[in-house]
Amino acid sequence: MHHRAPLAAAGLAAVSVLLAGCFASGAGDPAGSAGTRIELAMMQPPRSGLSPFSDDAFKLSRWSAAETLVTLDDNGDARPGLATEWRRTSGTAWELTIRPGVKFHDGSTLTAAVAANTLTRAMKAVPKPRILDGVALTASVAGERLVVATETPDPLLPQRLSSPQLSILAESAYAADGKVNPVGTGSGPFRLVRVGGTTSATLDRYDGYWGEKAKAAGIDVSFVPDGTARAAAIRSGEAHIAEAVPVSQAALLDAKTISEVPMPRTNTLYLNTKSGPFADPAVRAAAREAIDRGQLISGVYENRADSAKGLLGPALPWTVQARQELTGRVPAGRPDGATITLATFTDRAELPEVASIIQQQLQDAGFTVNQVVREYAHIEQDMLAGEFDAFILSRATVLDSGDPVAYLKSDFTCAGSFNIAQLCDAGVDQAVRKAEAAEAGEQRRAAILEAEAAVLRTDAAIPMLHERVIQGDATSVVGSVKDPRERALVTAATHVK
Question: Which of 264, 307, 313, 494 could hold 479 in an S-S bridge, CB 3.0 to 4.6 Å?
Fold first, then answer.
């Protein structure tokens, strides 16, 4: 086990000093072998003590410490995980076969009862895992199989079970008071052995793993909120892998050490369809025609983003392959000097700059534009209440199930909980309901694209660009995963040559 001082956030002047004590083994050591430990610099520290019922679950997944019953392929289709197969036994019930021979890191064995225990505790957790919002789920055992039932039909249940927030842990992980301890209780190829608060974590190879044994001896994690410091760790050779390298730092790194991964995140201009100038569809169309995406991509994102042709982007390859040319759009009208309020927030550093460029583009098209920029916590309430004519948001379009229907429903239906555009359109609601009810696979994907087209025809939201995440890898790293969903990073195959 490695005990070391964490790589802390720092200004440029202190970066080199900090790096010296951050990682126990030199990432640039030419004598490294397949048994070398992987030094990993991550952006966000744990927020909930690495509870799998929180967003911290994605860290356990990216470290290959915890596993789920189901996994997803590139198209978002369900594939075997800790469950080898499943079948729908009724409109509301599914039966899953549990993979034999799986040992948890505490030595206990995976059974249907153990899996049912995790799902039952997830349903009772406070707060409940986001993947279970609005879902009433029960888990039981029939013979040696796991039975999962929902109150209403859920065609997406297998995909739901792929969420890292439903990672299956040994029964020893769960305390009577509801707390969950993932240390030594997962089932992946790496065993979590130590958590250093919000600064570090240590994982060792688990030789009892049911699948391919890990090629690396372990993972030493440092939580490094400062993007400049994460990039510096790759540049100096102190880290093997660094996640989320800022665009501004990417140009400073050797091109061989960075990779860009399309994210299911779209920078979108939401227009208030209920009140103000944008209640007129022709005026919304005028705003649509005013947007120059290329200027945003080159000027703000340094060409490290993709121009948006729809709400859903290249992180979901099937959307690019199957999307049809959009017809039936309202022609653009004349703004005639209409005064609008354009808002965004400061928490994502690039958004104020995007807002300034959009403000100029709209003014050039004939609008009079006032701009409001605040911290997100101080603007969200007004944003959701429709206080602004236009709002710029970097929005995740695929949530925990790997399916975009939840995003379309929350953002664009009459009863949507995140309906910034105040949109209430019967055609959109009908299309989203159809997508929500469709079976997983080609049928559902086709319905999703129909719903996307219905939203785009309203011009309630103007997708501008799809973001990418930039990952740093030392040239000695083999097999790190570039995952748009940010569920995988270090796997059993990842190692240092």
Answer: 494
